[in-house]
Amino acid sequence: MRTAAGRRFFASAPEAVLEAPQSEVVQLASSAPVLVKFPDRAWGASAVLPQHLLPSQTGAAERVSVVRHAFAAHDAAHEPLADLVAPLGDGRVAVAHDASQAHRRLIVDEYSLGPSGQYLLQRTGTDLLRHLNAEGIRAVHVPDVAAAVAGAVNSARAAQRGVRQSTNEVLMVAPTAFGFNDQAAQDNHFMHSSTSTSSGKPGTSITHKALREFAGLHHELTEVAGVRVSLFQHSLEHGTPDAVFPNNWFTTHPAGEAAGGVAESTLALYPLKCPNRQMERRPDIVEVLKSRGYSRMWDLSGAEKDGHFFEGTGVLVLDRVNGIAYVNLSERADAGLAQQWADRMGYKELVTFRTVDPAGADVYHTNVMMAIGTDVAVVCLEAVPDAAERAHLRERLQRHHTVVEISFEQMGRMCGNILELEDGRGLPILAMSTQAHDAFTPEQRAVMRQHVAGLHHAPLDNIEYIGGGGVRCSLAELF
């Protein structure tokens, strides 16, 4: 039998009564299935859900989803359901970061109330995060569910405000006419000219090698991570050897970004230093972007004629949740345009500084020395020579993020040139090159994995070596 409190009693004799632990219940949303975790380990689905296992809190719910630890050993310790998933309100739930790891993920068996009053099995073994996504519930990936419910985790606060740091959709340009850009190499010291562009055999040119790498990255993002990609190409006639890096010439921003500072959805175009990079602002791509229906288009490219440059998210590393713009000032990041951008976009704060590489040369873009996710930031602080600027940058990042500090050597291996995206389940992931992934220490990777559902990487050696940009440069976010 089942009591009103949802407890099951057993009697082997009239005088012997034993009480079993209660099942655990989480109601995520009024229209969503009730999540139930049984007190004893469930070793599989059943065709008909045993009624005596259901606590009274389920009421007469139309649907029940039973949560299982399908990948935990028989002697694994019990984990309370409330430590794994909890509602945040407004169709969002906090999910423990462990639940996104392959060996720790949770699955659910889905049941519906049948005409006989019994719960009948509809689907078995669905990944919990995909189940939530299918129900239109946004899972917020957090290191501590209780802290998220209490509002002490940045990602949870962001979710409750409806602000997103990352997106599931990007624009990419395949390097179909890729080559060494002499103009850009004047101040991009991450670039190297190739001593041999081809062995003479078909498919061995730098362009062909770059395309194979790029195809691998495209596959990792689309087929493995579930990121949506709007893909373009370019030809020699375009005269744009660096077109594979589209993030420099445009950005997109949803209304409400920067803690509400961005008043209307915006498409912005930027002034680029190199003439052959200015041609990357192709009218056909601009028209496709405009067709997405942005309320405002802001074209800053006219500053080029006056010798002022501001190269999109090459120079802007954005905390989109809290409204902080980080800019490494250089020839490609004009201080006046940086302030104008922050003021007009409605960002709350502009943090500027100057950086150098180990040889003392200016670092050409901000996004090769730092990156910001929802809850974690990566930064090469030793690249900031001024002690006051370095301390200010550290303090601002630590205010909202767990900070992973990288070295000069790691910056040179593109550890700063990474980007948080959302995967097909709506969870944050970090996209990076294999070179960058392998250059992070195991401890650094462990810290990042506490805050994202995965580290997705692909080899991009030729594009990084010849083009001087990595995965982040290859992705232009679409909000």
Poorly predicted ranges (pLDDT <50, ≥5 residues)?
A: 1-20, 195-200
The CATH C-level class name of the largest domain: Alpha Beta
Order of neighbouring strands in the sheet with most strands = 3-4-5-8-9
Structural class of the helix and strand makeup? alpha/beta
Percent of residues in helices comes to 10-25%
Biggest sheet descriptor: 5 strands, mixed
Mean pLDDT value = 89
How many helices? The count is 13
Number of strands: 25
CATH-level-2 architecture of the largest domain = 5-stranded Propeller
Number of structural units classed as domains: 2
Task: Indicate the overall shape.
Answer: elongated
CATH superfamily descriptor of the largest domain: L-arginine/glycine Amidinotransferase, Chain A
Please tell me how large the radius of gyration is: 26 Å
What is the fold-level CATH name, i.e. the topology of the largest domain?
L-arginine/glycine Amidinotransferase, Chain A
Strand content: 15-25%
- How far do the termini sit from each other? 53 Å
SSE layout and pairing:
Layout: E1 9-13, E2 16-19, E3 24-27, E4 34-37, E5 63-68, E6 85-89, E7 92-96, E8 107-113, E9 119-127, H1 128-134, E10 138-142, H2 145-149, H3 154-161, E11 169-173, H4 206-225, E12 228-232, E13 250-253, E14 266-269, H5 275-278, H6 283-290, E15 296-299, H7 312-315, E16 316-319, E17 324-328, H8 335-345, E18 349-353, E19 370-372, E20 376-379, H9 387-400, E21 402-405, H10 408-412, E22 419-422, E23 428-433, H11 434-439, H12 442-449, E24 455-458, H13 461-467, E25 476-477
Parallel strand pairs: 4-5, 7-10, 11-12, 14-15, 17-18, 20-21, 23-24
Antiparallel strand pairs: 1-2, 3-4, 5-8, 6-7, 8-9, 11-25, 13-14, 16-17, 19-20, 22-23
